[in-house]
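stage 2 :: seqdesign
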């Protein structure tokens, strides 16, 4: 009876997992299909390689090159800053604070809480910070805001990867005379490179795809910024402004911009997979 109950339970959860996976896959396919169906007819080389001309948002000629470059500037800058700040914190939690579980759990709780805060709240905070520091809407203000937004994601993602490293590796390294910092950056870092690349990708994807956190801080311009203190356009905001237009042609361009955004994320995903496979050779097998 006990065995039958366990088998029935296993079969039940297997069916639930299959249905959940099917729903997620179908939802993703429907989203991608609808974007491609509406966006591909409006996609052209002019959209990719030209900046908006006068009247672009009223259906006249031009493209979204300013938004593509702005999104890449913003995402690379914020992901780099979040990585510089997040990697030491994640390693410190797992190497230096390994025996202070309550403190580490409290930090993880705060990071999880920060992760769940809506991005518009980060946008409002970034706007307040911008006024306090006397800054204008600019690429730099956007990078700072998005960095604050993706930092908890970066730290928790790296933290989960570092947690998978066997504790015996830390004890062995310390017993051989390594300091905790050497162990963190020369052993744990190399061991976790594939997972860290995934964490960077996850943060980059959130950074490039979010509109609310940059709504008040980056501003918007039809030009490509040449310094950190100039306003910049982003693809999510470009999509938002075009979809708000009552002109059907401009609305279709919004879907074309969404196709460009999806392709950029796809390229980043493929590159990260290639790098992940390359650096898996450095892992120590237990």
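stage 2 :: out
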């Amino acid at each position: 009876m006990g065995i039958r109950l366990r088998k029935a339970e296993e079969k039940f959860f297997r069916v639930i997992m299959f249905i959940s996976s099917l729903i997620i896959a179908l939802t993703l396919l429907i989203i991608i299909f609808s974007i491609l169906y509406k966006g591909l007819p409006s996609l052209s080389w002019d959209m990719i390689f030209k900046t908006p001309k006068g009247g672009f948002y009223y259906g006249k000629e031009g493209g979204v090159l300013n938004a593509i470059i702005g999104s890449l500037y913003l995402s690379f800058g914020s992901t780099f800053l979040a990585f510089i700040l997040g990697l030491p914190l994640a390693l410190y939690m797992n190497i230096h604070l390994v025996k202070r579980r309550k403190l580490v759990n409290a930090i993880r709780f705060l990071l999880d809480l920060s992760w769940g805060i809506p991005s518009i709240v980060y946008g409002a905070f970034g706007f307040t910070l911008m006024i306090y520091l006397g800054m204008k809407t600019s690429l730099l203000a956007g990078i700072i805001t998005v960095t604050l937004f993706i930092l908890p994601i970066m730290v928790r993602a790296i933290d989960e990867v570092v947690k998978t490293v066997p504790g015996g590796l830390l004890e062995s390294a310390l017993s051989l005379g390594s300091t905790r910092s050497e162990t963190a950056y020369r052993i744990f870092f190399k061991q976790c490179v594939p997972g860290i690349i995934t964490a960077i990708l996850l943060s980059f994807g959130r950074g490039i795809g979010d509109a609310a956190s940059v709504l008040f801080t980056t501003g918007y311009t039809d030009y490509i910024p040449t310094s950190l203190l100039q306003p910049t356009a982003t693809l999510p905001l470009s999509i938002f402004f075009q979809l708000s237009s009552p002109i059907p042609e401009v609305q279709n361009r919004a879907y074309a911009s969404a196709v460009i955004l999806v392709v950029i994320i796809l390229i980043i995903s493929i590159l990260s997979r290639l790098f992940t496979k390359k650096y898996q050779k450095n892992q120590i097998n237990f």
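stage 3 :: structure notes
- The chain has a mean pLDDT of 86.
- Residues 170 and 285 are 15 Å apart (CA to CA).
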